[in-house]
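[recover] target loaded
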């Protein structure tokens, strides 16, 4: 076993042990876990990383517009919930730092907002991802695209302990991490896709599991939302329209509100 790989296994095993031991925390600690007090809203990409592109628009711009609206609705309607943004303008934020922002602030929820694209295809619809490895091989192109921003960062080999986003072998360590927040992440993801489908009449491609770095390294329930395909001309128009952005942001906000009510009723 290579030194870096051995180090990763040790670190992940330690984190898994901490997750297990947290189940035996005092009642006061457990009570605090079931309150939604702080949400991190992450607008995907930004700055030198445009993300995917359509004919007239870039993912980083659409994601930011929707993210700011989601945060605004939370601030306006859920005054007991603090909103933290990973970015509020067109700036480049390292992938690792996005998770660090959530972890440093002890967030209770992490929501990353993106747009999709597939070349040479008329694919359309929404998808919401949670941390997992189901159908990893089938969706490896998506995994590489969302994690590839790592390659734009200075010193990424040192910062990410040798993790290579284009190497399937690098993802072996993801399976070692206990899915401590899987149930809550899945609950929110299902609410998001259900609202997209039933309230907005959007085509839902469902909730999916992928080993996305930003979901793996956040220490709280986390989802990554693909709001539609910029590569599809009809969806690109919708994603760039004022109404489309308002509707999508409203659906995400409603899902977060419903999630909050659900966990606080326990």
């Amino acid at each position: 076993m290579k030194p870096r790989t051995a180090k990763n296994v040790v670190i992940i095993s330690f984190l898994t042990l901490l997750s297990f031991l947290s189940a035996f925390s005092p009642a006061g600690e457990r009570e605090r876990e079931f309150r939604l007090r702080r949400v991190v809203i992450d607008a995907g990409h930004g700055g030198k990383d445009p993300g995917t592109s359509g004919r007239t628009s870039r993912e980083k711009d659409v994601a930011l517009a929707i993210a700011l609206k989601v945060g605004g609705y939370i601030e306006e309607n859920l005054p007991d919930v603090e909103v933290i943004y990973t970015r509020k303008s067109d700036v480049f934020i390292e992938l690792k730092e996005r998770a660090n922002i959530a972890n440093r602030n002890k967030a209770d929820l992490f929501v990353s907002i993106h747009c999709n694209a597939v070349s040479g295809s008329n694919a359309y619809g929404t998808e919401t991802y949670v941390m997992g490895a189901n159908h990893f091989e089938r969706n490896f192109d998506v995994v590489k695209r969302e994690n590839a921003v790592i390659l734009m960062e200075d010193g990424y080999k040192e910062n990410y302990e040798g993790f290579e986003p284009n190497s399937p072998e690098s993802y072996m360590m993801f399976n070692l991490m206990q899915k401590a927040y899987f149930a809550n992440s899945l609950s929110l993801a299902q609410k998001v896709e259900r609202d997209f489908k039933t309230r907005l009449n959007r085509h839902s491609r469902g909730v999916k599991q992928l080993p996305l770095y930003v979901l793996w390294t956040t220490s709280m329930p986390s989802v990554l939302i693909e709001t539609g395909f910029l590569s599809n001309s009809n969806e690109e128009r919708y994603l760039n329209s004022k109404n489309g952005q308002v509707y999508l942001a409203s659906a995400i906000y409603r899902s977060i509100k419903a999630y909050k009510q659900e966990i606080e009723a326990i």
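[recover] notes: The longest helix spans residues 242-264.
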